Amino acid sequence: MYRRVLKNKNILCYLAGAGLSQLGNVLAGLAFLFFSYDLTGSAALTTIIAISQAMPYLLFGLIGGAFADRVEKKRMLVAIDLLRIPLILSLVVLYQLDMLAFWHLLAAAFTVQSLGCFYNPAYRAVLPLITPVDQQTTVNSLLDTVTRGVQVVTPLFAIALLNAGHAIHFYTMDALTYLASAILILKIHWVEPMGEEDVNSAQRDGLFRSISVFHWWAKREGTVKHLFIATFWMVFLNTWVWQVGLLLLLIDRFPGSGQEVYSLLLGWYGFGVILTNIAIPFFWKSLNFSLYLWGSIVWGLGLVVLGFSNYLPFYFAGVFIAAAGLPLSSLARVYLIQTLVPGNMLGRAFSFNAVLLYGSNVLSLAIFGALASAIGIQRLFIVCGSLMVITALFYFVRTALAEHARRKAVKALE
């Protein structure tokens, strides 16, 4: 299965480009945080740098997807990669001249991520153009495995650079990954999904009009609409408890060693996600909304187990359960977008999905961060995990009722 997929040179170049880009993104993200704190000594300003890397997706995410659907993707992807090289290297030059300031970091972080709003949906939209439908589950699994594997390995690489006193070359490495990515993209061959009629339509319609067209299309497509709604809700319930709550819970439960336990659990989580990603194509060639819901149930049960945990083995169990559910849910979502959305709307679909994720992340961090002191972190884990399970069961019941009503209508017509 994997051997057959990896014989496709287009897919190999695509996966290699994604892995290199992820390596550069992680290194640059760390560098922005490290240097902002070194230059200012302020936690608040360092937080602003972190926010500056997320805000562009809320501001330009939908526009980037609409734009990606209107242009030749290869030309745009290569142009953005090449544009980001001097932008990132300018920080290295300023540092060497002892002129690097906080506002340079802020401007660069915001600009790089703004360009990502156009780059990312276009890059994701390329995958179904180079992959046969019966291989998309396998390729999606490989893509997720590569990107998550890079996230696990990159911190070790970063530690080596830090110990050598070359933290500024995080940016140099990032620039090199952009160059390598552009070269690999040029090696990939695909046919754009837009015909002459689509091009003429795109030229007549403005960007905001094309966003509105996708919005009304998605509202009429039941599975896509419910997929987006469920995704917003699931991510909203997960983000705070996983990104913040777990760390605080472990620091409170294991005084003096909470951060080490947290790091260990994150490594265990990465192992579980990669293992699940590799296993999924052996069980399913295609994914559907039901599998998305089953993945969400397992994901939510993992959070519930963490909420009831008092001993370290139970934390490992809860994290592993969550690591088994999240990839199935995530891969099913991506597969459904790739197969249900028309090719000339994929950029808008992936950008809309990204805006949903970032929006739910921001709301989750704000709302549950405020509720944590009143409710308690363990209770929040139980409540959020339970609501994820209940939401998935609700959609199962709703789907069953809709199918029953459809069958009754067909029998009545007969």
Describe the structure.
α2 packs antiparallel against α5. It contains 15 helices and no strands. The radius of gyration is 22 Å and the shape is globular. 87% of the residues lie in helices and 0% in strands. It is mainly alpha-helical and 414 residues long. The protein starts with a helix and ends with a helix.
What's the short version?
This protein has 15 helices and no strands.
Give me the secondary-structure topology:
Blueprint: H1 2-6, H2 9-40, H3 43-68, H4 73-96, H5 102-130, H6 136-163, H7 169-187, H8 196-204, H9 207-220, H10 222-253, H11 258-283, H12 289-308, H13 312-340, H14 346-375, H15 377-413
Key words describing this protein structure:
414 residues; mainly alpha; 87% helix; globular
Proportion of residues in extended strands: under 5%
Cα(first) to Cα(last) distance is 43 Å
Number of strands: 0
Anisotropy-based shape: globular
Main sheet: strands, sense, barrel: none
Regions with little confidence, pLDDT below 50 for 5+ residues: none
* Count of helical regions: 15
Query: Roughly how much helix do the residues carry, as a percent range?
Result: over 70%
The residue-averaged pLDDT reads 84
Helix-strand pattern: HHHHHHHHHHHHHHH
* Alpha carbon gyration radius: 22 Å
Oligomer: single chain
